[in-house]
């Protein structure tokens, strides 16, 4: 059901772990399926993301999107990191089954939450970033029978 | 280990090669329609009669009380909808439990949309129905009690004979979904006061797409599939002869080997449960410790999500299943695990392993070792876990 | 002649050995539940997808519009009952014909008992529906027209495209029971304006106990069997994987060979019809002379009773069927033969012979010779016959 890339990132997740004294930490939960993701960012004085780690409690897609998302934001500036949307992550993973699209939102939201935390701590404003929602459950497009 | 370790026998089972052998002649050789009058087809009618007798004997029922269907879900739908139809003049109240299979629960929801009232009984932390609550839920307009024989997720068996006695005392029909139990544990419809019982071929090493509904003589029940005069005019449709023969053969084999098989499976199951509970911390056994199907083990591993666990087990060549929301298609974890009181995040980390008659001790040892590694790995990635 | 001559392909067919080969792996090797997440079962989901694509392609439908069922009767029941359920707010009037299969007729009677009104259209002496009567039967509260594609007894095919056009013009759903036609004659749901279509595996050299309902996208239709999320949540129950694979394979083979097969069968059928009509006096051909299924011949032999004829044919190694009351289980002769205007005693003497793709000219010759003898013998015993 999953692409080879998803399976690769699931089996060998990149950047698992925690960062002590992280510049920003974001934790989001998906009340709908009950999954949780936490992202740690290490941002330098030029607003470049030097390191990123994650921990995820979720399905194969959640783990793989966390892993891919951390790879994609590493080395980017905080502004550039906003371009790492769930869509971009899914594309990088060669797609996800339709029922798993919401899992990729978890990764996007966790990064945004970590960036928000970083911005708050440093009293800066990141253009286009808004306060994270406590719960990312959005409207699923499920067929109505 | 190269070989596949199949521990998902509650999902479906392998057709026993002896069962397949019994079915094979009816596809391309003896393919006649059992309703035909010529000699070529008369053997097929006979084959169905034998299958019916096999099934009836096991239940202590009369062959005329067995109606073959297209599976367990059809049997469940039939029992509930046709009873509702036939008895609605008497009343529109039905009692069932919160841990039934969706074939019962969604049918009850449908009936609610048609003006029936349904009481969904709670279960205790082991998944057992509370007889007191059942008794106090009975009303003058209650027409049916439907309680499953054994649960498909946690394996817990219900006090069926007790429920049957109560139903009889109150003059209420009693249906049981025995899809997981039939062929695995002894069932006697008379002793247990069962009026209707559903079963499905593919849960007992028989074929998919065939099942039956037992309907006690005297129970007023309408057809669900109308049409031709098959199955004593109660279930229309050209008979699935190979499927019915397969179900009958599988039932016979299960009956003949039940004791030995249940002993072997429950021994291995207990070995699995003991090792897992001892060697993996933060683990819960779901379902009743002893009143459970011989082949069912169900665990919750805290801080771990079920689908991830299944994928890793799959990579190790092990087939299992989970009540995790992430595998359910819907976004909620299993209604059964919630009903026994598990919080969402613990329900998430559930793993069901259901043994078959070919499961070995070596396989269990291998599974336990792999499971330890997998749980540890997933916990190390979990934001919920701190060691 | 030692060999059996099977001329009852409208009752059921032999599973094509290629179809059986395609099914076999799914019993005891690839037996996984298609809903499971592990790799072992993923091929089974794929196998179902392919079968669905095969069926859809033949009809010019989208795969998502095909729902597998436990047979043709279930598909018919589903189409009618669930449409009634979903559209009863719009109206409670249904139009069908007097010559439908019992899976339609008895379902209509059931719906009548639930407050629906059903118009049963007449047919002419060839069994063709009168478009004028159909048109004038349509009312503002008509929600469904259900007319069979081809009749199972007399083989007559209906003007389906014309009915489809009328239904569309009036905004009424159109269902056709194509159990006898699917795989035998070309059917295109779009060109013919078909909204729902029923078919059954065992009428096209596929397995028994599996069928499908085509439901056009946009048609609001409820589940008939509630439960698990199989078949896009519309038809619950663990999928009969070997059965579905068999149906898909049979459909594919039929589509690939349809033209050649229909040509060959109708040639032999015409040869049979011509010889019988010429060589046996007081004989009537039932059904339309040309607008009929390629494999169907149906005769009435005056002064002769059907069951007796069948038994004698059986003794000569020939399998056929009859609409005689004596074979019908009920005491009335076939409703189809009565609807085309046959008096009881002529309906009694009916014989249906339905060819297969392995029927030979030699077999037909043998059958005609035997038939002459048998009819003669029975007539000589008949009090109705004077030569
Ligand atoms: C026209 C027609 N409709 C429906 C059916 C029912 O199909 P099944 O017997 O597969 O349920 C049949 C055959 O029996 C048939 O010929
Ligand atoms: C308890 C229970 N009831 C009903 C069913 C439905 O049976 P089937 O899938 O054969 O329709 C199942 C299995 O899927 C089950 O475990
Ligand atoms: S995290 Fe639950 S479905 Fe993906
Ligand atoms: S004469 Fe015996 S059933 Fe008709």
If you had to describe this structure to a student in words, what would you say it looks like?
Chain A: Pfam families: NifU_N. Chain A: InterPro entries: NIF_FeS_clus_asmbl_NifU-like, NIF_FeS_clus_asmbl_NifU_N. Chain A: GO terms for molecular function: iron ion binding; iron-sulfur cluster binding. The complex is a heterotrimer, with one copy of chain A (145 residues) and two copies of chain B (387 residues). Chain A contains five helices and three strands. Chain A has helices at residues 4-11, 60-73, 78-81, 86-92, 101-122; strands spanning 24-30, 35-43, 49-57. Chain B has 387 residues and is of the alpha/beta class. Chain B is globular and about 70 Å long. The model of chain B has no long low-confidence stretch (mean pLDDT 95). At the B-C interface, α1, α3, α4, α5 and α9 of B face α1, α3, α4, α5 and α8 of C. Bound molecules: pyridoxal-5'-phosphate (2 copies) and FE2/S2 (inorganic) cluster (FES) (2 copies). The site of one FE2/S2 (inorganic) cluster has 2 residues of chain C, from α10.
């Amino acid at each position: 059901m999953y692409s080879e890339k998803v399976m690769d990132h699931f089996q060998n997740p990149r950047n698992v772990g925690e960062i002590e004294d992280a510049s920003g930490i974001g934790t989001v939960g998906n009340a709908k399926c009950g999954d949780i993701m936490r992202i740690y960012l290490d941002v330098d004085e030029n607003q470049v993301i030097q390191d990123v780690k994650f921990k995820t409690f979720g399905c194969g897609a959640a783990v793989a999107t966390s892993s891919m998302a951390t790879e994609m934001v590493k080395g980017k500036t905080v502004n550039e990191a906003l371009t790492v949307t769930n869509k971009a992550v899914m594309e990088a993973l060669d797609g996800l089954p339709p029922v798993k699209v919401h899992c990729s939102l978890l990764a996007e939201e966790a990064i945004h939450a970590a960036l928000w935390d970083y911005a708050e701590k440093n009293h800066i404003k990141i253009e286009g970033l808004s306060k994270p929602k406590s719960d990312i459950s959005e409207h699923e497009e499920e067929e109505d029978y | 280990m190269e070989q596949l370790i199949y521990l998902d026998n509650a999902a479906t089972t392998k057709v026993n090669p002896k069962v397949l052998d019994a079915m094979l002649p009816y596809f391309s050789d003896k393919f006649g329609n059992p309703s035909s009058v010529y000699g070529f087809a008369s053997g097929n009618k006979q084959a169905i009669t034998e299958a019916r007798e096999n099934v009836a004997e096991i239940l202590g029922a009369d062959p005329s009380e067995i109606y073959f269907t297209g599976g367990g879900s059809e049997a469940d739908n039939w029992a509930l909808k046709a009873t509702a139809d036939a008895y609605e003049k008497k009343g529109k109240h039905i009692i069932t439990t919160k841990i039934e299979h969706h074939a019962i629960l969604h049918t009850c929801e449908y009936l609610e949309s048609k003006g029936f009232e349904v009481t969904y009984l709670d279960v205790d932390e082991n998944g057992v129905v509370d007889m007191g609550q059942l008794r106090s839920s009975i009303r003058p307009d209650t027409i049916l009690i439907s309680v499953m024989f054994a649960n498909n997720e946690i394996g817990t068996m219900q006090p069926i004979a007790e429920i049957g006695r109560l139903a009889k005392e109150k003059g209420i029909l009693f249906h049981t979904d025995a899809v997981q139990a039939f062929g695995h544990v002894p069932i006697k419809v008379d002793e247990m006061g069962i009026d209707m019982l559903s079963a499905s071929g593919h849960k007992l090493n028989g074929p998919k797409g065939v099942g039956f509904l037992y309907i006690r003589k005297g129970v007023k029940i309408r057809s669900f599939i109308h049409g031709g005069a098959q199955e004593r005019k109660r279930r229309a449709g050209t008979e699935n002869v190979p499927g019915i023969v397969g179900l009958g053969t599988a039932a016979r084999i299960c009956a003949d080997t039940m004791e030995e098989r249940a002993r072997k499976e429950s021994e291995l199951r207990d070995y699995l449960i003991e090792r897992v509970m001892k060697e993996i911390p933060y683990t819960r056994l779901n379902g009743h410790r002893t009143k459970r199907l011989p082949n069912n083990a169900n665990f919750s591993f805290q801080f771990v999500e079920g689908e991830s666990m299944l994928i890793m087990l799959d990579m190790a060549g092990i087939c299992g299943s989970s009540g995790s929301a992430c595998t359910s298609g819907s976004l909620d974890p299993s209604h059964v695990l919630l009903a026994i009181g598990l919080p969402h995040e613990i329900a998430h980390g559930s793993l069901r392993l259901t043994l078959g008659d070919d499961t070995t001790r070596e396989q269990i040892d291998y599974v336990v070792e792999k499971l330890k590694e997998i749980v540890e790995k997933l916990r190390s990635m979990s934001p919920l876990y701190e060691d």
